[in-house]
Design a protein that fits this description.
This protein has about 300 residues and is α+β, with helices and mostly antiparallel strands. It contains six helices and 13 strands.
Length: about 300
């Protein structure tokens, strides 16, 4: 099997580069999904398209034994590529900066390798859209595919993630939790706008936001057990249109990372508490994310190392 895999390298490199040249965000992975379907068809795999909007499910083997799923993601990030390579992104403002092009190519490689094997059960290939984003209903590609029964009857799921810290050809396996749960919060902090010369006649959302940010950044260091990994980062802070005008609102987005279910729930609770500062200061904080849902309803999941 290893020798066969090595023989596949040139083809998989070309598949990966083809995907890299044409990155697609969120659920809009139409070209990528089409490439996946063509390659799976060559392997003789049974294909189901449009799963979770644009996801693809491939199947090899019979349903008379255990069902093992292998999962990859297909979507790209809204980042402009500046790498001076011949296979650089041809789509302005988007690139595969998180390795999903490699994940898709590797899973297709697994399908090619297993196509001629005698399988006593079923291998199910899950090609997921929108790992990096939610739709307007709060669904990611994973939750959308789950809702459409992509994992029905599955006994176990295998997945991996590339990393820039390992040399090519190396893999890392260890005990315990290998990657964190991810939760995103999107919040609009509202006040009352007005002229910058008369801040006393406004409820300044920037001033309120500065207090909220202090509380948010204090959560990991002052509210979470210091022996438990926890991260809170703000990635977007946006507001205002002129230097002398105080706006009505400020928008922010942040990410939470946790390795323990109880810590994850505490992070969500602490973010809610920090946002209460806006109300106390005369403004308000409206969330545009599943912060107010139970943690079990959110996108994050704990990935375990075997």
């Amino acid at each position: 099997m290893l020798s066969k895999a090595k023989q596949l390298k040139p083809r998989l490199v070309e598949i990966r580069r083809a995907i890299h040249r044409h990155p697609e965000p969120g659920f809009e992975v139409f070209e990528t999904a089409a490439l996946v379907v063509r390659t799976l068809a060559e392997c003789g795999a049974r294909c189901q398209t449009g799963v979770g909007k644009t996801g693809v499910v491939g199947r090899l083997g019979s349903g008379s034994g255990p069902v093992i799923a292998i999962r990859s993601d297909m979507d790209a990030l809204p980042i402009r590529e500046s790498n001076p390579v011949e296979y650089a992104s041809q789509v302005p403002g988007f690139m595969h900066a998180c390795g999903h092009d490699a994940h898709t190519a590797m899973l297709l490689g697994a399908a090619i390798l297993l196509a001629n094997e005698k399988l006593t059960g079923e291998v199910r290939f899950l090609f997921q859209p929108s790992e990096e984003a939610f739709d307007k209903h709060g669904l990611s590609g994973a939750t959308a595919m789950l809702a459409e029964h992509a994992l029905d009857g599955v006994n176990a799921v295998i997945a991996l993630h590339v990393t820039g810290t390992l040399d090519t050809g190396m893999i890392e396996i260890g005990p315990g939790v290998g990657s964190a749960a991810v939760d995103t919060f999107k919040v609009t902090i509202s006040g009352k706008g007005g002229h910058g010369a008369h801040p006393d006649q406004t409820i300044d959302p920037f001033w309120i936001t500065s207090q909220v940010l202090n509380a948010l950044y204090g959560v990991p260091s002052r509210r979470i057990d210091p022996l438990q990994p926890a991260v809170l980062s703000i990635g977007i802070l946006r507001g205002g249109s002129a230097a002398n005008i105080i706006p009505d609102s400020v928008y922010l987005e942040g990410t939470l990372r946790s390795m323990d279910a109880a810590v994850r729930q505490q992070l969500l609770d602490e973010v809610r508490n920090a946002l209460e500062i806006a109300r106390v200061m005369g403004g308000s904080a409206q969330h545009e994310s599943p912060l107010w849902m139970p943690a079990s309803s959110n996108r994050g999941a704990l990935a375990l190392w075997a």
